[in-house]
Specification:
It is a single chain. A two-stranded antiparallel ribbon has the order 1-2. The chain has helices spanning 4-17, 25-73, 80-83, 103-106, and strands at residues 86-90, 97-101, 113-114, 121-122. It has two domains: 4-73; 77-146, no CATH class. The protein is mainly alpha-helical.
Length: 146
Amino acid sequence: METIKEKVAYLKGMSDGLGINHETKEGKLLLAIIDVIDDMAEEIDLLNEAQTELDDYVDAIDEDLARIEEDIYEDDDENDYEDDGYIEMECPNCHETVYLDEAMFEDEEEDEILCPNCNEPLPFECECGCDCGCDDEECDCDCDCE
């Protein structure tokens, strides 16, 4: 397929071959139209080049962003907290979801665990009434909730 520039060059050659010149009113008009078309073809070529550059640049940014998203969000599965030894709960004071390390419950010296958002104590009770922070099925305390 011919480009616009090639078509305009063909028109210029045809006007030269037909002897169209600036001496007649019609000749002036036709040559002026061909010049305008030539200028438009130049601008279209420049726009196409700029668009191609812009497309390449956007593709590069998209690839970079995809790599960054992979790095940031690769470990951000909601189920990962359960698999990594964290307990998810909603703070009754600030109503934010917090994730607590299970090792925090094993530390017998710590009397209470504070919410990392509002710094208020988090309540822990199993169904038997003890405050060991366990579930009924997994209780390791001396209570009868096993």
